[in-house]
Amino acid sequence: MKSLDNKLMLGLLAFGIFGPVLFPDYTFQIALMWIMVLFAQTWDSMGGQMGYNSLGNIFFFGCGMYICTVTQVGLFYDVGDYTSATGSNVTFSDSQYFIGLGVGILAAGVGASVLAACLGWTVFGLRGPYFAIGTLGIALSAGELFGTWDWVGGGSGVAIPVYPGEADHKSMFFYTLCFLAAASTFLFYRWLFSTRFGLAVNAIRDDEGKADAMGLHTLRHKTVAWCFSAFFLGISGALFGNLTGFVEPLEVAFPTATFGIFMVAMSLLGGSGTFWGPVVGAIMFHVIKEATWTYFLGWQWVALGVIIIINVVYFQQGVVGWMQEKWPEKFGIEVDSSMSMEDEAKEAAQ
Predict the structure, then answer these.
(1) N or C terminus of the chain: which is more exposed, having fewer CB within 10 Å?
(2) What is the pLDDT of residues 262-289, one digit of tens each?
(3) Which sequence spans correspond to the domains of the chain?
(4) pTM of the predicted model, to two decimals?
(5) Strand, helix or coil for residue 246
């Protein structure tokens, strides 16, 4: 398993470094792929590893985007004036831009985590489909609320401070940040789920009532796991907002019907609850999405819908889950070669 794990990591590292060099015309699409990988990993840390299927994680993505934007502007100018009809004409020096960006990205992660901690004490009183619907309501409400908040641009949105350099330099700069964010998320969860904390959240997934009865502080573990997820989602929102150059509440910051659903679909496609599943699922889903958007425009949603239906109805274990069943030894899974008479009968019947 370690050999396969190391090979996959080296392959992703190589593609992360040389991808923009080999495919310079697709730098933005590859950068977006790394954000998709981050999406899938953060969702799976809740839905796959802990059994809490959130449909509102996009809330932290959008809040991170707005927190970063307000920080970038507010460090040097009045935010209300900047978002007014004439205020967006102000200019930022090179030092102002990069200082604001650095502080804004950090503030986005921390701010999203604080919001997760505050919400966790209330929404984690819900379980199963009620938790999913409750979190979905939060995400949908956030888009509408930010759309009426004129201080941050309202429904018209707000322009991000302009990158002080050429367009190609901007693409490579934010590509690097997106890749580092995805890699940091991957390495963090790789470490986290190898600790006792990982065992605790798996126990909550398997039987929360028994875990609680055995003395496990389930609410604390659930809240901390959600804060970790929100931290990386807030950072991804900050990066995506600067990459696109414009923040709008419904289509960019809180796209529940697209990015919000993609998080779930990518994790399920790769194999929810498996470590490599979200990564594989995100890459596959993003490649298929970009191909259908490019070559089958008008049918892209049909294609994605068919993939989701096939995945949910006929392929519930996902790609990595299926591979683990097919070649368990490659994933370090030991299988008892001896078979009971009942198992042999079942296999013969199939």
Answers:
(1) C
(2) 999 999 999 988 889 999 999 999 998 8
(3) 26-254
(4) 0.90
(5) strand
